[in-house]
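anyone seen this seq b4? input:
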Amino acid sequence: MFTGLIQALGRMEPLGGDSWQITCVSHSCEVIMQDLAYGDSVAVDGVCLTVEQVLKDGFIATASPETLRRTTLGGEQTQQRYVNLEASLRVGSKVGGHFVMGHVDGIGRLLVAEQTASSWEMTFIASEAIARYIVPKGSIAVNGISLTIAAYESELSQFKVAVIPLTYSETNLRYLVSGSLVNLEGDILGKYVEKFLSPGKLHTTIDETSIDGITPAFLAEHGYL
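predicted toks r here
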């Protein structure tokens, strides 16, 4: 689990097959690298990847076929790209953004980015599968960044976010141009509400006084595995 507060900027390059090398390139790399270990989870542009090998200034990870299909990682794999990095949330850590699972729902596209006196206003378009979780003043993760939705046009599946200068300068948002693709993850709270309110669907329940019903299948169904 993550919070959507980006800790460092990295450069991602393919190693062949589904393997990637992520090299930390920003001044804040120590936050990511200080105790990074084999098996740790790191959000790379909002995609939860598992560290398979720790390098001096980065790590190697593998993206599954499902990840490649659903995210921007499955696009052009012959070029380097800048990616946002965030280590997984620790027990007791501050949650400054919102709960980000690292399970990208799909790909969106930047329509326009306009600089204002106090921020950057960026408008994205999302597929219907993602748009149903978008609500004004709600949260969304764009390339792993926790952002607040300033406006939403449901007919066009377009939403606008206001990005403060610090976030814009410290993340890969500054490299986006009109037409750039981004990873989008809707708020997990909206997904649970949708599931619980969906008519005609059966939901697994357990006895609150017993843990017998907490099985791997139950945890996977509810997004914990």
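Confidence is low (pLDDT under 50) at residues 202-211. The longest strand covers residues 106-115. kinda curious what u guys think
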